[in-house]
Amino acid sequence: MQPSSKSDGSLYFRLSLMMFLQFAVWGAWSVMIAGHMQDNLHFDGKQISYVFGTTAFGAIISPLIAGWIADRLMPNQIFTGLCHLVGAGLLFYAWSISHPVAAGEVAPFWPLWTTMIVYAFFYFPTISLTNAIAFHHMKDSNKFGTIRVWGTIGWICVQTGLAWYLSRWSAKGEILGKIHQHDCLMFAAIASILMGIYCFTLPNTPPSKNAKNPYAFLEALKLMANRNFAVLLIISFIVAIELPFYYNLTYLFLSGSKLQGGIGLEPGTAQLAMTIGQWGEIALMLLLWPMIRYGGMRWTIFLGILAWPVRYAIFAIGTPWWLVVGAQALHGICYSFFFAGGMIAVERLAHKDIRASAQGLMVFATNGLGMLVGHFVSGQVHDYFKYPVVDAAGKAVLGTDGQPLIGQHWPSIFMVPIVVTVIAGIAFLLLFNEKQFQADSAAMTAEAEQQAAPA
Question: Which pTM was predicted?
Answer without folding.
Answer: 0.81
